[in-house]
Amino acid sequence: MLVLTRKTKESIKIGDDIEITVLSVSGDQVKIGIKAPKSVEIHRTEIYNEIQKENETASTTVTNLMEKLKNWNINS
């Protein structure tokens, strides 16, 4: 992990097209702004983890359904 120190209104660049700017600091909260192409998905970690969990559940459901359909065709 790269650790950087930035002050309010200072930013960092990630590659050529992503910029993260410190907007404000208040107590233990830091507000950041992120400029990135629309094609780059940006999520809070807890939201990202929920999306991954839902995708895994959906994938398992489809796999189970496909297996049931396969067995149904064989037994019909």
UniProtKB/TrEMBL annotation:
Signal peptide: none annotated. Keywords: Bacterial flagellum biogenesis, Cytoplasm, Repressor, RNA-binding, Translation regulation. It is found in: Cytoplasm. A translational regulator that binds mRNA to regulate translation initiation and/or mRNA stability. Usually binds in the 5'-UTR at or near the Shine-Dalgarno sequence preventing ribosome-binding, thus repressing translation. Its main target seems to be the major flagellin gene, while its function is anatagonized by FliW. NCBIfam families: csrA, PRK01712.1. Belongs to the CsrA/RsmA family. This is Translational regulator CsrA. It comes from Bacillus songklensis. The lineage of its organism: Bacteria, Bacillati, Bacillota, Bacilli, Bacillales. The gene is csrA.
